[in-house]
Amino acid sequence: MAGTLYLVPNTLGHAQVDASRPLSHIIPEDVQAITARLGYFIAENAKTTRAFLKLVSTAHPLAKPLQEIAIAELNVNTKADALPALLQPILDGKDGGLISEAGVPAVADPGANLVRLAHQLGITVKPLVGPSSLLLAVMASGLHGQSFAFNGYLPTDASERAKKIKALEERSKKDGQTQIFIETPYRNSALLEALAGNCKGDTLICIATDLTGADELVKTQTAAQWKKQIASGTQPDIHRKPTVFLVLAS
Questions:
Q1: How far apart are CA 87 and CA 84, in angstroms?
Q2: What is the CATH architecture assignment of 133-248?
C-alpha cells in the first residue's frame, strides 16, 4: 500500500526562532508533529530543508537523526521524466513530505507537477496548514478578495513590463479582479516605480513585505499617492525584502 504525500508548509524565509517567538507562531504544532515523523522529503534545496527541520526539532524530536533523513531535490530544472523516481519511496509504502523553500508547496512553486503525478498514481495527497504569502497579502490589502489572479513575475524589460502592467490594470478594471504578482527582491523598488508610473492615478496598489517577519509591512494606496511618495523619497524600503504586489483598478 502506498504512503501519503504530505504538502509541508515552510516559514516565509525567517529562520530565527527563539523562546519569545517559537516556530508555532507560523507553523501549527500539529503540522510540526507530522513533519517531525517523516523520514523522506522532496524539496527545492536539501540544505535549507535541513535547516527548517532543525527548527522543527526544537519542539518535536525527529523520527531519525537529521543527517539520516532522505531529502531528494526538485526544482525548476528537474525534468518531467525524473518525477516518478521521486515518488517511488511513497509508492513503496513510505510517507513523504513535499516542502517548498518558503511558504506552501505547489503554489508558485515547482512541486505542482509532482502533486499532479501523485494523483495519477493513486497516492493520497494531504495538504497541511501553513503560511501563504499570496493569501496573507490578499487578506491584508483591502483589495478584492472574492476574485483575484496570481500572475507570477512580470517581464524584466522596462517596455515589456509597462505593457504588462497596463494589460493587468485593464483586466482588473474589466473583471473587478485583484491582480497579484511578485518580483526578485533586489528589483522590488524598480517594480513599485513602474507600477506607480504606468497605472492610472486612482488605481489601488498594495505592497505586502516580509510577511510574518520582523520587518512586516502592508501598505495600500493609489498609484498617484505612491508616485508622490516615490518622488519625495519617502516610500518604504522594500529592497531585497520578499514582497507581494497587488493591483485593483476602478
A1: 5
A2: 2-Layer Sandwich (3.30)
Question: Is the CB of residue 32 less than 8 Å from the CB of residue 23?
Answer: yes
Q: Which CATH architecture has domain 4-127?
A: 3-Layer(aba) Sandwich (3.40)
Round to whole Å and give the CA distance between 77 and 110: 9
Alpha helices, DSSP H, located in the chain: 29-37, 46-56, 83-91, 112-120, 133-141, 158-175, 188-198, 223-232
Q: Tell me the mean pLDDT in the region 122-133.
A: 97
Locate 124 and state its grid cell: 493520497
Query: What residue has cell string 476602478?
Result: 250
Domain layout of the chain by residue ranges: 4-127, 133-248
Cβ neighbours of 159 (radius 10 Å): 8
Angle subtended by helix axes 83-91 and 112-120, to nearest 10 = 50
Each residue's pLDDT tens digit, 93-113:
999 999 999 999 999 888 999
Provide the b/e sequence for 83-119 (b: ≥16 CB within 10 Å): beebbebbbeeebbbbbbbbbbbbbbbbbeebbebbe
